[in-house]
Design brief:
The chain is α+β, with helices and mostly antiparallel strands. The protein has 20 helices and 18 strands. Helix content is about 25%, strand content about 15%. It is globular and about 55 Å long. The structure holds a DNA duplex. Keywords: DNA-binding, Nucleus, Transcription, Transcription regulation.
Amino acid sequence: MLGDEGDSGAYSAAKDEEKRASPAADGDESAAGNRYPEQHGMGSERYYIPNTVSKQNPEASFFPYTPGGAVYSPPGAARYPSSLHLSTVLPPAGYSPSAHFSPSYQHGQNLGCLYPPYTGSGSALSNVTLGGGAGPGLRAQVYLCNRPLWLKFHRHQTEMIITKQGRRMFPFLSFNIAGLNVASHYNVFVEVVLADPNHWRFQGGKWVTCGKADNSSQGNKVYIHPESPNTGAHWMRQEISFSKLKLTNNKGTNHNTSQMIVLQSLHKYQPRLHIVEVSEDGVEDLNSDVKTQCFTFPETQFIAVTAYQNTDITQLKIDHNPFAKGFRDNYDSMYTAPESDRLTPSPNDSPRAHQIVPGTRYTMQPLFQDQFVNNLPQNRFYNCERAVPQTNGLLSAPTEDGVSQRWFVASVQQGGSGGVSAGSKLDLTPYEGEYSGSLLPYGIKSLSMQTTHSLGYYPDSPFTAVSAGWGSRAAYQRKMPPSLPWSPRPSPAAGFSEELGKAKAQTDEEVHSGEALISSWTEGQASALSPNKPESYSVTCKRQRLSLNGPSADIKCEDLSSSGSYSKEAPPTKGMASYYSFYANP
DNA sequence: CTTTTCACAGTCGCGCGGATGGGA
DNA sequence: TCCCATCCGCGCGACTGTGAAAAG
């Protein structure tokens, strides 16, 4: 199927209109690949358009943001005008970005960018109609659920492995959506586009541009969520995870194309989320361009590689990806080994350049800093990350940190359920933000709902996440009570406006009370992290992980058991219980 | 020299089938 | 004794990063 995409650039609108039905609706994989064919052939031409702050659509997203990262408007992109407004919005008073939900940078329905053949006029702004809140299915709000994790990778320039067979993304894309019409049907899909016109290479410990990007990009660039089409209620009810999305460099692949996105190595890409309102049978409304929406999260930018270049990224993957658990046994060295031992020269601002100070290792002092996004065992906290400037030569540190540090107090979004304390406990979960997002604003929903695309390794539910990630066996997981009584969650937007003032008032108090809560919670969590191997936390063996100077040298480790703040006697279920009770009783 | 491919070992989820226990 | 549900262990497959070899 991909083989015939070479001429996709010449794909006509008429041809496209012949098959307007959603591939997800008819299950036709080839259709999935061709569903938005213009995206394939144009891959290299349709660079990610910079987000320019626009006041045209002040309610489309949540806070003003100008991506500081590399975004590019190609010289010859007349058909994708750089004047496209990725509408951003002034925040409600007192609103700050959540640490867990990243407001998206909505493309203001700039459908000209996404569906040129559909729009007729092709005007980028022709669909920025957004006729008020009454419009059915419009003005969706999208939140990046695992944003803390994305940010963590983004600081080091995220890399994604691509293989012939296809490699899953990690972190994967996971969203919560609000503002859809509960009765309308939508297709939800992710598109990956070039983020800039450059070819990149890793040199001297950092990514540098190296010539122009290959413009002959072919292959599928779209991954349609397997549950598409579905109702707005369905999409809003649960976290929408794209964990099964695979990245490949195999243009000739002719199977699993619906699950694979074809990329080119050493190119920088930007994933984008699309929500398209369709009829009940999955067919798009030919006259409803306004029913398509696009969302971009700059922190999800990544460079496709066939092998990891930056060991910081490698270590982050090992630390956070459950599939890479087998490589975690010696990761302690990453936080104690001298910087000179690192395989990859890193900027001196790397968080790991800062040694752990035993005295502070267990303190909760940095609770509202980086350990919010740190799922490492408590005895491996390094508390300097956010305290030092993050500049790796690629990222716009001020912007990046400016965003990440304005971490929102969760209570703004979820009413009385916990503010910072809620956010804290979520970020301390083993999978960080992987599912934290599902907890934060819609906690009851997330606790109760088992998504139909249950992820196994990447659970949607905090329950499954806890059981799967903390050593419980599948049988145990399956026997979990399926759900608490679920009640439809309020839309985030409503929650924002209604709870904003109250949450703001609660913030300070929760900052303080949350610390104690977190402290008690992490106690249980730390024990749950390694229910079967408590010694791994009582004795940390610091082995050299990455060294150019021969075999790994085992470094005798200090016994940390005496200073640990966790209770290694606590069984995993206790940890989970504490997790639940903590969450349920803020 | 850089980049890609491949085999490998490790972890984990899942499905299968046998063993076990309770109720009819 | 039979039936059913549950538990448990095993094996398979999916998935990960590693490191060497191959390719460009």
